[in-house]
Amino acid sequence: MIVAALLPLGLFLFPLWRITLEAPQYPTPLAMNIHINDFSDVHPHDIKNINLMNHYVGMQYIPDAIPEFKVFPVAIIITTVLGLLIAWKGNYKWFLGWFILMLVLSTAGMYDFYLWEHDYGHNLDPKAIMKFTNKDGTVMGFQPPLFGSKDILNFKAHSYPQFGALFLALGIAAGFLAYIVGKKKKKIFSP
Amino acid sequence: MKKILTSIIAIVTVLTAFTSCTNSGKTNGKSGALSSNVAEKVYVAPGEHDEFYAFISGGYSGNLTVYGLPSGRMFKEIPVFSQFPTSGYGYSEETKPMLNTSHGFIPWGDSHHPDISQTAGEIDGRFIFINENNTPRIAKIDLKTFETTEIIEVPNSAGNHSSSFVTENTEYVVAGTRFSVPIPQRDMPIKEYKGNFQGALSFISVAPETGNMDIKFQVLMPGFNYDLSHPGRGKSHGWFFFTTYNTEEASTLLEVNASQNDKDFIAAVNWKKIEEYVNNGGGTMMPADYAHNVYDEHTHTATSTMKKEVRVVNPAEVPGAVFFLPTPKSPHGCDVDPSGEYIVGNGKLSANLTVHSFTKMLAAIEGEKFDGEAYGIPILKFEDVLAGSVEQPGLGPLHTEFDGQGNAYTTFFISSEVVKWKLGTWEVIDRKPTYYSVGHLTIPGGNSRKPQGKYMFAMNKITKDRYLPTGPEMEHSAQLYDISGEKMELLLDFPTHGEPHYAAAMRADLIKKRSQKIYNLEDNKHPYAAKSDSETKVVRKGNEVHIYMTTIRSHFSPDNIEGIKLGDKVYFHVTNLEQDFDVPHGFAVLGQNTSELLIMPGQTKTSVWEPTKVGVWPFYCTDFCSALHQEMQGYIRVSPANAATPLKWSMGEDIE
User: Fold this and answer.
1) How far apart are CA A52 and CA B574, in angstroms?
2) Does A185 touch chain B (CB under 8 A)?
């Protein structure tokens, strides 16, 4: 359980997610890493260049910081401390509780990410230089995929988890494993 | 039926025979048209990169062109000694000082011999040096940015031709004078040339880290013509060799009068000895006047400093420093083999090719076996220093390069061919025609201990019918040969720009990985840079107006400017805010009496405009930067000199 509680700290070392944009004019694709507390360029000036591309279709600039950057790190630290406390004092049933808490928080995180992406891709400047409509006449959005790859005009956008997400997932899985192991031990030791 | 069967069998047998014949032809490999697919050898597929860079001198274009080998494709023209309206080099306020000399601003130059910097006798790909022949100068190009970053004028020199070759660790880039002149320059009768004119050999030190150039000393030699030179390497490191002609010291009709002596000289200069002499206070500081121009990649601006003195050395005062090696008939090229043992004197009017031995030269010096002296410089005996000669290899030998496998390749101007011969045995191995009248030739890694072989290219002086005709004036032609086999194989003809005087070439990898993509905007220290739209402004200082302008896809800021008056001097200081690879912006304004500007990402360049007419004049981006390139434009209003139009500027809103 200690391992489970510590693994999500990997989020402070590695990016959580990466959005990559490929286009013929970009033999080196543009890409942005999303960390628990920051956005970062994959290659120098990538975010500046993503913003430059996006201004043609009226998308907002990627902000330097979003409120989530304050909330997420705190949430991770709290859950880690909580996990350690449980590992020290609690019994295996608490392990399950921690596991469920982490699942809920992660899902909430993903949902938040989706909302941000949706706003970013759909809340367009009415004075956009180029306006595109879908076949049904609605305004075309430029939301990158939540997970996977998608064609957006001349770009192919990829959205995939990075090492940070792997650490989080392993942590959560380890929490569940700790619960299973704890439950079995309980059975063995209590006839 | 039986007959039919028999004939079928017969046909099959014959076909099989043919097939097997073809197969054996293929496996044998080397001979016949089937075996060597020349097109394949020079084909670089779309999107693939060439294996070698070739930096080909533009000669009288004053510039340096960058090619890929084996494809022969041209990638860039680097402006060096000539104004270049394409980028604004020599026109922009920042780069005008690069072309400053003691004779004032000179818009043109005659570039000759590029040579790449070396470390421990091997090409390191950091800098490339090139000489200007007419108004003697040496330039340094930084191969990180492929831009000219330094030019130093060479005083006391004239016809800066035996230049710009570097020593084994780029301690010096050496510049020798082709024309001897009065030193110091003075008003005197031309016919008093003999005994009064001198030839300066300049040793320009190169700072190890920065590459900064400084004339360490000049050796004032007798009034001969110093034609070409090369450094010693390996065992002969510390020496430099110069060919001479006109040892007759003629000042008129040189084609006859400078061709009389049976032998001219190769001057062997022990620069280590002279360096030591100079470091101990030897030589004298002489008044001089020469420009030193340095481009700073952070301010994106060049400064020109006039230097007022230079250290000169009289070789007769440094015993053991300079010797003459008699060499037949006006030798042109002076080439040292990769081991440093052989010094080839390409006697251009001689039937044979003379090769001197460094070891024998040292022994002769040791034994003090001199054959007289010239102006206090000992002359060694021809037989004592001769290693051997290649007998009757061709007509008009000019230059020799080496493949690092013990072979040498010499160009013959008159018989228009390249001849491959063996060092040591002096036997001719192969000869191939060139089209036509070849001057220099280049093997990648040429002037070093480790030539990189594989290819050799010849740079020809005459083109005639090699390409589709383009009227009386044509580009010169180069020819690429495969030299990996025993025999040379002609692979490709490709046109070159200007006069491809000489070239330096090397494997692409070292340069490729260091090549810079953009200039960091953060590092931009230009005093008139605007590093964001919010820093843009227009400032009047008397009749000077400074516009701090930015460009980013796809607008100028400001793009509406009012309050300019006739008689004003308007400075457009344009900063390209882009930080993406290969997104330059251009700038031009109607009626501009200078060139456009082409501004790289993160760079600032300045164009001066002195409007001559009242009106509202457009300016626009000249580089097709983006989908909205055509919209990247603006207006500047010019009012009469006595108008009261206030100074205003804006972007994105109507000017109020």
Assistant:
1) 19
2) no
Residue B43 lies in a domain: no
User: Cβ A45–B579 below 8 Å, yes or no?
Assistant: yes
pLDDT at B473: 94
The mean per-residue pLDDT over the stretch B471-481 comes to 96
pLDDT attached to residue B16: 44
B171 lies in the same domain as B261 = yes
Interchain contact, A56 vs B580, CB within 8 Å: no
Question: Three-state SS for B629?
Answer: helix
Domain-terminating residue out of B472, B498, B514: B514
Do residues B290 and B102 make contact, with C-beta atoms less than 8 angstroms apart?
yes
B198: CB partners within 8 A, 6+ apart: B156, B180, B181, B182, B183, B220, B221, B222, B223
Distance between B283 CA and the closest CA of chain A, angstroms: 52
Parent domain of B619: 521-650
Say yes or no: A137 contacts chain B, CB-CB below 8 A. Answer: no
With beta carbons less than 8 A apart as the criterion, state whether A16 and A36 touch: yes
Q: Which residues of A touch B552 (CB under 8 A)?
A: 52
A28 contacts in chain B (CB < 8 Å): 581
Cβ contact A28–B581 (<8 Å): yes
Decide if B320 contacts B365 (C-beta within 8 A): yes
ipTM of the complex: 0.86
Provide the Cα torsion B143, B148, B152, B158; round to 10°. Answer: 100
A48·B552 Cβ contact <8 A:
no
Based on the structure, what is the number of domains in chain B? 2
- How far is it, in rounded angstroms, from Cα A113 to Cα B653? 36
- Which residue among B579, B580, B628 places its CB closest to the CB of A129? B628
| Residue A45 forms contact with B (CB below 8 Å) | yes
Instruction: Render pLDDT for B42-96 as a digit per residue (tens, 0 to 9).
Output: 999 999 999 999 999 999 999 999 999 999 999 999 999 999 999 999 999 999 9
Instruction: Give pLDDT tens digits along chain A (191 positions).
Output: 888 889 999 999 999 999 999 999 899 999 999 999 999 999 999 999 999 999 999 999 998 888 889 999 999 999 999 999 988 887 788 889 999 999 999 999 999 999 998 999 999 998 888 888 888 888 888 998 999 999 988 899 999 999 999 999 999 999 999 999 888 887 776 54
Size of interface A-B (CB pairs under 8 A): 17
Q: Which region among B9-18, B302-311, B392-401, B525-534 has the lowest average model confidence (pLDDT)?
A: B9-18
Which residues in chain B have Cβ-Cβ distances shorter than 8 Å to A44? 579
Determine, yes or no, domain membership for B591: yes
Nearest to B579 among A48, A56, A129 (CB): A48
Closest in B553, B580, B628 to A45, CB measured: B580
Q: Residue B47 domain-assigned? A: no
Q: Where on the phi/psi map is residue B283: left (φ > 0), alpha (ψ -120 to 50), or beta?
A: left
